[in-house]
Structures are given as C-alpha cells and as structure tokens.
Design a protein that fits this description.
Keywords: Membrane, Transmembrane, Transmembrane helix. The chain contains 8 helices and no strands. It is mainly alpha-helical and 241 residues long.
Length: 241
C-alpha cells in the first residue's frame, strides 16, 4: 500500500472489515444451528444434506484459511515455499470468489422451498404448528442473511480500498504508515559507521518486509534522514572534542 490515507482506511476497516470477521465465525455457526434445528422438528422439515454439507465446508473455509496462515507463519521454510511459488495466494484469489458466488447461489436455489407453507420471512403473526418450527425458520433466515451479507461486505471493502488508493494516487498522497523496517534501519544508521548506506542499501534478512516495497517511504524522506545523520555525526564529533 504505497498510497493510502490512514483515517479513511480505518473508517473502511471499521465499516466493512470488522463485520466481515464476525461473519466468518457466524456463517458456519448458524449453518450448524440450522442443521440441529431442522433435525429437532422430527421430520417436519427436511434437509438437503449434500448442499448443507457443501455450504458448511465453504463457510468454514475462511476459518481454516486463517488458521493455516497462522500455522505456516511459524515455519519460515513453509512460508517461503508458499510466498515464492504463490500457490497459496493464487488459490485464495481464484477459489474464494468462485466458492462464495456459485455455492451460496446454489444453496439459495435448492433450499428455497424447504420450509413448505411457512412464509420465507418467518412472520411473527403466522401460526406455527410447534415452537421448534418457528425456531428453525428464524435460524434458517438468519443463516441466509449471513451467507448473503458476507460476500457483499467483502466486495464493498475491496472496492472501497481500491477506490481510496486510486484517489490517493491522483492527489499524490504518500503512505502515512511507517514500517518497522524503516525505524529499524534508521536506528541502525544512526549508530553505525556505514552512515546512509545502511538505509539505502542494506537488505536485512531478519525482516520479512520487502525492502524495495518500502522505498516509496524512504525516497520521500531521504533528505531528512541524511540531514539527521549529519547532525548526529557533527554532535558526536563535538562531544569527542
């Protein structure tokens, strides 16, 4: 993110990213609740087990992906394989949109009439035969809403961030984030005999952030860094004298 304003990005994250994270947990949770609620009706409501299991696997995919990312981050060798070959990233890019467009569409179509004569929106004034039917209807409706809202929020968040980056590029606004690598190199340069070369040329293997991606920030502040280094060296020489 070479061009990105901090405050609008935080607003977009609060509006779209945080609710999306909640839905990552809610989608499989309500699907499991729906399965148990339908079973509790003693055959009054029937499940299409194939599509239910398929959607449950799809809704669990983001959780499994997040867990897997945390797992491989502990092993640098595995992380290097996935990042260099781009297998994992390509799988996410191409597989997730397909899963969250095709499968929810099929799920909605195949389960459209599973409630029988009960209205689709589960109105309060409808006469339900049992309390289990009413509970199952409400859980089913909540499950469908979570399923539909999740991809919508993902698309809105991605589009909003893309528009924000595009607008920032047009106005020439630089990134306001200061990376850990920048601060580390700046500190090393101040207390090193190599001077500015540590900032502009060093490739620190301990930091996973790509150096070239951060040159946008470095180039903008190069003159400031050089001036600070000159002042530091001048003050050091005066103290020694």
């Amino acid at each position: 993110m070479a061009y990105l304003s901090f405050f609008p990005f935080c607003v977009l994250t609060a509006l779209f990213a945080y609710p999306t994270l909640l839905l990552i947990a809610f989608c499989p949770m309500f699907e499991i609740l729906k399965i148990f609620a339908f079973i509790s009706t003693n055959g009054a409501l029937k499940l299409n087990w194939l599509i239910e299991i398929l959607y449950l696997c799809t809704s669990s995919f983001p959780i499994v992906t997040t867990f897997f990312c945390c797992l491989i981050s502990k092993d640098s060798s595995i992380t290097d394989i996935f990042m260099q070959k781009r297998y994992f990233i390509r799988a996410l890019i191409y597989l997730c949109p397909v899963l969250w467009i095709i499968i929810p569409g099929l799920y909605t179509f195949l389960t459209f009439n599973e409630m029988g004569d009960i209205p689709y929106t589960c109105p309060q004034n409808y006469t339900y035969e049992t309390s289990e039917l009413r509970l199952a209807c409400n859980i089913r409706l909540t499950n469908l809403l979570c399923m539909l809202i999740f991809p919508i929020l993902c698309v809105l968040y991605a589009m909003s961030v893309w528009i924000l980056i595009s607008c920032s590029k047009r106005t020439g606004q630089k990134c306001e984030f200061k990376s850990v690598r920048f601060l580390k190199l700046y500190k090393n340069a101040l207390f090193s005999d190599h001077g500015y070369s540590r900032i502009l040329d060093e490739d620190d293997d301990d930091d996973s952030i790509d150096f070239e991606e951060n040159r946008v920030v470095f180039d903008e502040e190069e003159e400031f860094i050089k001036a600070e280094l000159d002042n530091f060296k001048l003050n050091s020489n005066l103290d020694l004298a």
